[in-house]
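Protein modeling request. Please complete all fields; requests missing the sequence field cannot be processed.
Requester role: graduate student
Desired output: 3D structure, token encoding
Chains: 1
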Amino acid sequence: FTVGHPPDVPSPLAMPDFVPPGAAAAAAARRASNRFTEKLDLGQLEYVQNCDENLVCRICQCPFVEPKALSCDHVFCKSCLYRSFETQVNRSSCPMCRRQVNTQDEPLDVSHVFNKVLEDLVVRCPNNHLGCLWQSKRCEAQDHVDYHCPHGLVECSAKDCRQAVPRKDSEKGCLHGTVECADCGLTIRNLELENHQTKICAKRIIDCLHCGSKIVRRLIAHHASEVCPEIVTSCRGEPFGCRFQSKRMHMQDHEDNCPVAVMTPYMLSQQARQSELESSNEMLRRRNEMLEGQMSALQDVIYAENNAPPSSLLAFDTMTPGAAAIQSIASSNLPGHRQSATTGFNDAAAADHLIAQNEALREEQARLAAQIADVEARSTLNLTNEVLRINADRARIDATLGRIQGTLNWIV
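Delivered output (412 residues):
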């Protein structure tokens, strides 16, 4: 013992943080005894809470694993830092500030307190997606997976079987044989039988969560959407304004008395008819736009031909660009009896024909618009009349009930 120097052995106050020599080797030996255990990748663990940004590596954006510091005070994961050095040519530099690093003296170890803070971060079990709810310090995750996690893999307990099995099933005997599902007859491994019967088997009888009925699993979706009396549904008149909702067992009583529900089939047919007319109108509108564009191009060509100097005018049979454009438009849009049988082309006749087609399309569009407006007006009128009739019937029924109630009161 030398005054002014650290003791040769750790003091009692430092014992909780002291790692006995050979402890890491002993842990590795225990892991080696189970050939299905692997060293955890701490960078892939899921943390319960968001970590302080000062504990996050700037390269991998995860909490530090084996942190190493540079003399510029930047800290990185050991593996991230060395991978960064490997990608650099000729010299090594800090990934953050690009300061040149002396690899003989750097990187440096961080303080023990810093490592302690990292190891105390709370993480979830790597098998949490399988149902393990374990949460604890990061430094305990490896031991949990190796010795305690119910979903960790261990060797099958059967003497003649060397395959892996979840720890929670290790006492059930060998589960690697095959068995036939009692519901669907599928042959599967014993190890997968529980998951198959609880989540997959289409012929498995299960209870409806709402009404408790026994339903085949593959029909449970249809049962919930069409049959189950305890499911809350909306009135069939919902698309047209009815906001009533109740359990399916009571919905029929409401729909029998709801004027909107009574008119729904008629309104749906009118809606389909209106959609059909709108589609036809849209098709005619596009055709009209196409013909207007072609007519505009034809008028430009005719105007250019009529205003060209006499010396530059050529006969159409020489197929000038203008004549070719006119002939192309005419041949693609005019009926056969309007197309010229000769190579010459009558531009005035083509223009007249396009104008006539355009006017016919305008008239058809106006007729369809008037027809749509008429259908909408008749639909609105019929709906109004039906609602008035239903309201009158309800008023008459209410009056009759009032008279009956008055008579009963008089008798009593």
